[in-house]
Every structure is written in C-alpha cells, then in structure tokens.
Design brief:
alpha/beta, 44% helix, globular, 138 residues, 5-stranded parallel sheet, Rossmann fold
Length: 138
C-alpha cells in the first residue's frame, strides 16, 4: 500500500516534566480534522515510551510538543533513540517554546524536519505535513 492510499499517521508526544498540553491538544484536533490519524501519548512521556509508541503505532511522523526549555536535549535524545531502534525514517517535527532562531537551526541540524513555535498557524502545520509526506512517497 502506498502512502497515498492511507492517512498520514502522526504521533504527538509531550516529553519530560512539562504539564501543559493545551497546544498539543489543539494540534491533535486540527490534524484529525484534516484527515490524519493521530495518536496522542499524553503528558510526561519518556523518550523510550515515545519511541515505543512510534514503533508500535507504525507512525509516519513524530511530533514533539515541548514548553519546558529542554527542547535541544530532549530532541537529541529522541533522534539518537530513533536511530538505535532503526526508526530514523520517521519524520520528526518539534513545536512549542523554541526561544531562538539558533535553537531552530540546531534542531534542524539534528534531523528535525520542521520547527513550529507557538505563533504558528495550524494550517501551516497541516500543509507542511501533507506536502512533506507527498515528497517522501515519490
């Protein structure tokens, strides 16, 4: 089955101790309304839990929502674990409080496909995932 025959499967995860998930829940709803299959892991997930969910749910995209300021460390650990588990074909996107352009650039140098700060329009997220997914399928 080609990617075009099924919905994009997205895992939305809240890693670490951050207890605020309002933005993540909004993104989950928007992606579902756009026809994507979304698995939301809930709050305070470990990297191991996120990677296991990505594997078990056979997702196409792993989306991290991080407001704690530890986005660089968490993302670096996630990317390493995905590679160790041979899941580094999953597209990774990061949203949340990313304070500087330098941080966004650093995340992208780790292999993150896109960074979505809080002011990002949800249509931008949907369109990015759709267009990126189509490119990967070709």
């Amino acid at each position: 089955m080609s990617n075009r025959e099924r919905s994009i499967r997205v895992l939305v995860a809240k890693p670490g101790l951050d207890g605020h998930d309002r933005g993540a829940k909004i993104v989950v709803r928007v992606l579902r309304d756009a026809g994507m299959e979304v698995i939301y892991t809930g709050l305070r997930q470990t990297i191991d839990q996120i990677v296991a969910a990505a594997r078990d749910e056979d997702v196409d995209v792993v989306g991290l929502s991080i407001l704690s300021g530890s986005h660089l460390e968490i993302t670096e650990r996630l990317m390493k674990k995905l590679k160790e588990e041979r899941l580094d074909d999953k597209m990774v996107v990061v949203g949340g409080t990313i304070p500087t352009r330098k941080d966004s650039e650093k995340l992208k140098s780790m292999g993150v496909a896109a960074v979505f700060p809080p002011e990002t329009n949800t249509d931008t997220i949907v369109e990015f995932l759709r267009s990126s997914y189509k490119r990967r399928d070709n």
